[in-house]
Description:
By secondary structure, this protein is of the alpha+beta class. It contains 6 helices and 8 strands.
Amino acid sequence: MRVATSLLATLALVASTVMAGPRPSDTIVINKKVLQTSKVPFIPHNGTALFTNWVGLNVDFKYVQPIFDLVNATHSLSNGTLLSRGESHVTVILPPEYDNILHPAGVTIDELNALASHNNRLQRAKFEIECLGRVQVVSKPDNAFQQAVQIILKNFGDIVAYREDVYKLFVKKGGNPALFDPWNFTPHITLGYKIRDIFVEDGVFKGKNACIHKMVAK
Ligand SMILES: *[C@@H]1O[C@H](CO)[C@@H](O)[C@H](O)[C@H]1NC(C)=O
Ligand SMILES: *[C@@H]1O[C@H](CO)[C@@H](O)[C@H](O)[C@H]1NC(C)=O
Ligand SMILES: *[C@@H]1O[C@H](CO)[C@@H](O)[C@H](O)[C@H]1NC(C)=O
């Protein structure tokens, strides 16, 4: 009897966990303080290995974690459970942009970090929330189902202005303008993923195209 009761309680808990979360008509609300990124420090990312040099706008994970927890607990959003990095940021210069394009033209990570931290410019950038997004693809050649969930941004002109200044520096150093597009950019805050994060290189685009649910900051 005790076993049956506790089994029932467990089943009820599982059912409520699976069924909890927003209905399609609900809007997910994130604390608007997440937009006040000037309150958290700029974190430089530099190293000697490939994929260790990139520029990010640091985002306070305190306001992102509740959204991760909600998505992770809502099957219609997460389609299972997700891995978290335990931190949050907006990638502004992607590792392959640095490794393959900017660095070969003589642009250094120190220059990019100096440009980002001058007057705390990047952390002070204004942006807004477009939606909750999700991208899925079967990766090649391993044939694995991949999925990543993210907060997609809009009205991020300040961030693009930084990329435009990176573009000017790149061209001044003799970089080929065809290889770096400051405007070809879909900023987002990664929440979690199934196996690994997935990127343009995997064939997915994290713009408005990837929205799966309404989200608002307030
Ligand atoms: C990263 O940048 C800092 C500050 O410029 C420097 O002291 C450090 O040596 C750099 N690390 C690597 C691995 O390049
Ligand atoms: C959910 O994930 C499975 C793989 O775990 C995948 O085959 C399926 O297409 C996904 N479905 C949805 C609706 O995301
Ligand atoms: C996501 O949800 C699963 C199932 O409830 C849980 O085991 C896991 O710890 C959660 N992930 C994180 C990073 O909190």
